[in-house]
Design a protein that fits this description.
Number of strands: 0
Distance between the termini: 82 Å
Radius of gyration: 33 Å
Helix content: over 70%
Largest sheet: none
């Protein structure tokens, strides 16, 4: 695998980490947030420091041949521990149980890191190996044991994490379950990575040449595992937010025709105070809904219940279902009232009761849709007629409208 195969996943993981930094700053005491950030940051570091150019640079700067391999082993062991801690905190349970299990895993991998350092110091690896250190020194005293320890520690974390995610996924539903299944795939790929390396190392110690498993195939499995792991961790956190934001944006867009119609009732006066363009979608939607309610209050003196009833009857005659016809009637009434308000008409028609005026978001969205798509409502814009029947025309005071 070329250098981009290491640096691209590292960059992707660090971008994800940058996205999570604001959450970390707001809730740095939350062990779950800390664990997520550590997993992402350390995972990116593992790819970055495992790249051959980085290995060469670290060896050159330190002046110690192959010290970069020890650094990579330590980072990967830290990544394994952080993933285990994340799953433990994520699943939760009695606080004392969570703390006890977390301490045990943290202690175990701290001892692994210490043992790796001691074994490297006792061993001798004078020839720099950037891509095949594992197999080249598989039989070297102390260095071989260091390699085996690192691989077994990684396999243990991969196997335990896979089993934990698998069992948990069978007990939950929704976004969490989807994220856990994806994590299972990611950790099975990680297990394949360390399994292939272990097979190559064991073969080398037995006099066989299976180096291609370690140098060619295992990095590919590791690169594939990274996106699965990150998506699996982030999906339960980002998924509900993404769906909620999508629904908010959809409601904002669907309310557009009603907003435009009521804005036209008083062109010189905005329905709501301006907000910054980068405000959250929920803030934009709240502003639009509040402005629509203010607009309805503005045109309320011109809302004509008789006009609404005739528009509803026309919609039913043209084939609209009962609920849709109700929305068409309300939309036609609002359009006529908006036009009357804009033209400065003063005669107050028969104002409908509160039940005839839409208030809920669903009703407002339905009215907004009817404003754009109903031929009955379009007739109001064209000639203030409803399905060829005469509409309520506002004329001089004291003069009655045709019925």
């Amino acid at each position: 695998m070329n250098s981009s195969g290491y640096y691209v996943p590292a960059a992707a993981l660090w971008i994800c980490f940058a996205v999570k930094v604001p959450d970390l700053r707001r809730a740095w005491r939350d062990p779950l947030i800390r664990s997520v950030c550590v997993v992402i940051a350390v995972g990116g570091a593992g790819f970055f420091f495992a790249a051959p150019p980085t290995i060469a640079a670290v060896n050159d700067v330190s002046g110690i041949p192959n010290v970069s391999s020890l650094l990579v082993y330590i980072i990967i062991s830290g990544f394994s521990a952080s993933c285990l801690l994340l799953i433990v905190h994520w699943r939760g349970g009695p606080p004392e149980h969570v703390r006890r299990v977390s301490r045990h895993w943290l202690l175990a991998y701290t001892l692994v890191v210490a043992a790796l350092t001691v074994l490297f110091g006792l061993g001798d690896a004078p020839v720099e190996r950037r891509t095949d250190f594992d197999t080249y020194y598989a039989s070297a005293p102390f260095i071989g044991e260091m390699i085996m320890l690192y691989l077994l520690a990684h396999m243990t974390a991969a196997l335990v994490t896979t089993l934990m995610c698998w069992r948990w996924a069978l007990q939950v539903h929704g976004w969490l379950r989807a994220g856990l299944w994806i994590l299972c795939v990611g950790w099975l790929l990680n297990l394949s990575f360390s399994g292939l390396k272990l097979a190559a190392v064991a073969a080398h110690r037995s006099g066989l040449d299976w180096d291609v498993l370690s140098t060619t195939f295992s990095p590919l499995f590791s690169a594939m595992a990274a996106p699965f792991a990150i998506v699996g961790f982030l999906l339960p956190l980002v998924g509900p937010w993404a769906v909620g934001t999508g629904r908010t944006l959809a409601a904002y867009v669907r309310l557009g025709p009603l907003w435009d119609e009521l804005s036209g009732a008083s062109p010189g006066t905005p329905l709501a105070a301006p907000i910054r363009w980068y405000a959250s979608p929920q803030v934009h939607l709240t502003r639009r809904e509040a402005g629509i309610q203010d607009g309805l209050s503005l045109v309320r003196p011109q809302l004509d219940d008789e006009f609404r009833a005739r528009a509803q009857s026309a919609a039913e005659a043209s084939g609209s279902s009962g609920p849709d016809a109700v929305l068409v009637g309300q939309a036609a009434m609002i359009r006529a009232a908006s036009q009357a308000t804009r033209q400065g008409r003063t005669r107050a028609p028969r104002v409908p009761g509160d039940s005839a005026v839409p208030t809920s978001r669903a009703a407002l969205v339905g009215v907004s849709r009817a404003l754009r798509g109903s031929p009955v409502v379009a007739a109001v814009r064209a000639d203030r007629a409803v399905a060829s029947r005469p509409a309520v025309e506002h004329v001089e005071d004291g003069e009655k409208s045709p019925t």
